[in-house]
Amino acid sequence: MIRTASLLTLGVAGIALVGCTKPPLTNGAKQFVDVETAYPITVEPQVATLVVKVDDGLQSLGRGEDQRVQAFVAQWKARGQGILNAASPSGTTNQAATASALAQIKKVLAANGVNDNSVQYTSYKPAEGDAQAPITLSFVTYVASAAECGSNWSENLAFAPRNTPWPEFGCSSQHNFAAIVADPRDLTEPRTSDPVDAMRRSTVFDKYRAGQPTRTADESDADSGKVSTVAPN
């Protein structure tokens, strides 16, 4: 009887020990896939350039070029790093027309809130014989890119009993994320915090010290949290 009880005790202890151990990884190391390591997103600086055509006959910008400049400035404000560069040709037969067109560009920049300190005006020597040399606008921006997908479909995804990741698992997600990110620089370093509202913070602290409610005084029905306006009996 004593021996039976001992064996029973040992059996219960063994089951308890088995229950405390970690279950084996049935899918092995293949189950653990680091998508960011397998398909990394690279962020590199690139130069965005706009070629602005000049109309020699009208001595001004080409038709519709002012709208293209305005759209380019909007891109520079959203994703540009550093100053905006404007390069005009020198020593060409259309130099007078480019000077007039550059004056128009300056007006477009000023109308879109770009001050002179944010623009660098330079000149370049065009190729010999180029009588229609344009004005170029450029700025440095960051571009995110990931590896191309769709080259390895060696596994049959219709039959995957072990449910392990396929060869290109996560590649499309990384590729799409790199394409839609608003500012690729956010992937390399965090943005600076906005300044705190010291006046509002002081107002809340004063109310807290005085034992007054710290919420805003205007409380609309939409933000009240009430589910009904019926008065209790």
Low-pLDDT residue intervals, each spanning 5 or more residues: none
Count of alpha/pi helices: 6
Shape, principal axes of CA atoms: flat
CATH topology of the domain at 45-142: 60s Ribosomal Protein L30, Chain: A
Q: Give the amount of beta strand, in percent.
A: 15-25%
Number of DSSP-assigned strands = 6
Rg (C-alpha, Å): 33 Å
Question: Would you give an account of this structure?
Answer:
The chain is of the alpha+beta class. The chain has a domain at 45-142: OmpA-like domain (60s Ribosomal Protein L30, Chain: A, 2-Layer Sandwich), CATH 3.30.1330.60. The protein contains six helices and six strands. The longest helix has 19 residues, at 2-20.
Give the structure's gist in a few sentences.
This protein is α+β, with helices and mostly antiparallel strands and 233 residues long. 33% of the residues lie in helices and 18% in strands. It contains six helices and six strands.
What secondary-structure arrangement, pairings included, does this model have?
Layout: H1 2-20, H2 35-38, E1 42-52, E2 54-55, E3 60-61, H3 65-79, E4 80-89, H4 95-111, E5 119-124, E6 135-145, H5 171-180, H6 198-209
Parallel strand pairs: 4-5
Antiparallel strand pairs: 1-6, 2-3, 4-6
Helix pairs in contact: 3-4
